[in-house]
Amino acid sequence: MANVLVVGGDRVAEIESMLYDKGFEQVYHVSGRKKSDVKANIPADTALIIVFINFVNHNLSRNIKKLAKQRQVPIVFCRRSCESLALAL
């Protein structure tokens, strides 16, 4: 089907499992903890971006939002939990 980029969060194994169950083939993850993560790029084959708002700073969020808009990739902002993500998807 497609690939997804998850931005934020340290332990996303449970969320990755849920995304694989939803049909995503590859899950990319950027923790947002390092300074260099602000300059993160979106992989070319990404069909969806999920940003966990309680784990990223404003600069990273702004950069990801700008890149997603340039590439016309849908972006979802939610809290880091399977329940929140299930409601958003």
Features:
89 residues, alpha/beta, four-stranded parallel beta sheet, 4 strands, 34% helix
Q: Supply the helix-strand structural class.
A: alpha/beta
Count of helix runs = 3
Roughly how many Å apart are the termini? 15 Å
Helix content: 25-40%
Backbone shape: globular
Low-confidence stretches: none
Overall mean pLDDT score? 86
DSSP E strands, number? 4
Major beta sheet, strand line-up: 2-1-3-4
Task: Give the biggest sheet.
Answer: 4 strands, parallel
Radius of gyration: 12 Å
Succession of helices and strands: EHEEHEH
The proportion of residues in beta strands is 25-35%
Give an overview of the whole structure:
With 89 residues, the chain is an alpha/beta fold. It has helices at 13-21, 58-71, 82-88; strands at 2-7, 24-30, 46-52, 75-78. It has a four-stranded parallel β-sheet, sandwiched between helices. Strand 3, helix 2 and strand 4 form a beta-alpha-beta unit.
